[in-house]
Specification:
single chain, alpha/beta, Rossmann fold, 2 domains, EC 4.2.1.136, metal ion binding, lyase, potassium, NADP
Length: about 550
């Protein structure tokens, strides 16, 4: 059965399986099904989706490789020959027939028997291209016909349907394995077979795959633990949110934002970043929001005239005093070098700490602070880090290209090294926690690539975390949070504190992206525009 995956609507959370797990699931299915039946199911699904995408196509081109992925395409072509008798079908195939897997050889025989037109050259004009070149077995290609076909598929403005994976895209990481990193020119669809692959949803994968579809081909995917999950909230926010009648502002948690270096420090004022985070925290439902601007000088404001509900406090005293010991603290938004004055105290005393931007840069520069952060979880203190790829690279001691080459692995390493929940921002943001299966977010778009949106996210994370920690919520997190299987090699249980941190991060990232997805087409988006759409934690 075909399932269309739309951003923000993947409930319950869907498992993602990498190349090794997907191959194992495929081999188990092949062992229990009659010969060629799995490929017949795949071909039927490809043909059905092709007809749905281009029901009146005059010319369909199928580019097929030498593996079973190519066999899926060849057998789909044979089916389309009977289902679309008026449509011209051209097949480009390359391979050594004597070395083909049994299913692929069978598919080639069926394609020839159907009288299909074979050509080594892509047609000059076609309505639908079907990419069945590499699939799960994708790897870098040297010069040759298949590389030329891949380039044609990348550059065409016709609709392209990719079988299982866009050829040249790494299944596990979403990084391009071939030098075709430019965004595809035309509409893209990807039909993922048997399992959903992590690479479709992060790094280059979202642009490469376009609209993702899934057909499990009648095979259960729960035979092996997933390598990741698609992030989806357990419930949707909205105006019908029910609160206890006896609730008060203290019931919804306190949030302290420390950042916004004053202009008097080095001539570069960044108070706007901290204001955005604090305003986001208030709008996202925190009961009380305190704001401490770092390096305060004569020009430092003591009141936000547009948001007078925000309570200004001295930053240093707040970091070292009782407030930081009680509230969720967000540190780093626009903090500049001034963040160094408060970071050590926060790492030592804050029970729940969100570190963003300049706080992460300061950590990367000082080994003893990194060690201090790594010890917090063992003391019952919890941390959420929200780096973009360059900040993540600084923390890991590598460059951002290495982070982007395997975003899942980078997030796992950060979570494990610093014993923290990590939100690795970017296309397909990755949320990871120590010893847990990571999640990949499906919401958001390039409108968020503007100054200040990360500050809004940090404030949202803090606000949602404050609300999960309020009375009556501890130990009662939604049961929908996916856990690893007992034999997965991962810790299947989460402490209440770590679970609340992970759940708050997942919800904030999902809703942050969803706000951009709902933004009217053709209108620019400023970070401050996100605030009006924020809603508190439901329930």
């Amino acid at each position: 059965m075909l399932l269309r995956l739309d951003p923000g609507s993947c409930r319950p959370k869907l498992p993602l399986h990498g190349s090794a797990a997907s191959r194992a699931i495929e081999q188990a299915a092949l062992a229990h099904l009659p010969p060629h039946q799995l490929m017949q199911r795949a071909a039927g699904s490809i043909a059905a989706l092709a007809r749905a995408l281009q029901p009146h196509a005059r010319h369909v081109w199928l580019a097929c490789g030498p593996s079973n992925n190519g066999g899926d395409g060849l057998l789909a072509a044979a089916l389309l020959r009977t289902q679309l008798p008026q449509t011209r079908l051209t097949v480009s195939w390359q391979g050594n027939e004597s070395r083909l897997p049994d299913d692929a050889r069978y598919a080639l025989q069926q394609a020839r028997a159907a009288g299909l037109e074979f050509s080594d050259r892509p047609p000059e004009d076609f309505d639908l291209g079907i990419d069945a070149l590499l699939g799960l077995g994708g790897r870098g290609l040297g010069p040759g016909p298949m590389a030329d076909w891949m380039q044609t598929l990348q550059q065409t403005r016709a609709t392209v349907l990719c079988v299982d994976l866009p050829s040249g895209l790494a299944c596990d990481s979403g990084a391009w394995l071939n030098p075709f990193a430019a965004r595809p020119a035309g509409p893209r669809h990807t039909l993922s077979l048997l399992t959903l692959k992590p690479g479709l949803f992060t790094a280059d994968g979202r642009d490469a795959a376009g609209q993702v579809w899934l057909d499990r081909l009648g095979v259960a995917a729960d035979q092996l633990p997933p390598d990741a999950w698609l992030n989806a909230p357990d419930t949707e926010p909205g105006p019908t949110r029910q609160q206890r009648h006896g609730a008060h502002k203290g019931s919804h948690g306190d949030l302290l934002v420390l950042g916004g270096q004053d202009v008097s420090v080095d001539g570069n004022g960044m108070s706007g970043a901290a204001l955005l985070a604090a305003r986001a925290g208030l709008q996202a439902g925190a009961g009380r929001v305190y704001l401490g601007l770092l390096g305060a000088g004569p020009a430092t404001p003591a009141l936000d005239l547009l948001w007078p509900e925000l309570m200004f406090r001295p930053a240093q005293a707040s970091a070292e005093g009782e407030l930081a010991r009680q509230a969720i603290t967000v540190c780093g938004c626009g903090g500049g070098q001034s963040v160094r004055a408060v970071l050590s105290a926060l790492l030592e005393h804050s029970p729940r700490l969100v570190l963003d931007a300049d706080a992460l840069n300061a950590l990367a520069q000082q080994a003893d602070w990194r060690a201090q952060l790594s010890r917090r979880l063992a003391r019952g203190q919890h941390s959420i880090l929200t780096p973009h790829p360059l900040e993540a690279a600084r923390l890991l001691g590598c460059d951002s290209a290495q982070v982007q080459a395997d975003r899942l692995q980078a997030a796992r390493e950060l979570a494990q090294q610093f014993q923290s929940v990590v939100v690795l921002k970017g296309s397909g943001s990755v949320i990871a926690a120590p010893g847990q299966i990571p999640l990949i977010n499906t919401t958001g778009n390039a409108l968020l690539a503007t100054a200040g949106t990360g500050d809004v996210l940090a404030g949202m994370v803090g606000a949602y975390w404050a609300q999960t920690a309020r009375p009556g919520r501890q130990g009662q997190m939604p049961a929908a949070m996916p856990q690893p299987s007992p034999d997965s090699g991962l810790n299947g249980s989460l402490s209440d504190g770590l679970e609340m941190a992970l759940q708050a991060a997942c919800r904030a990232v999902h809703q942050h992206g969803a706000l951009a997805d709902r933004w009217p087409s053709g209108r620019g988006l400023r970070a401050g525009d996100l605030l009006a759409g924020l809603t508190p934690w439901p329930g």
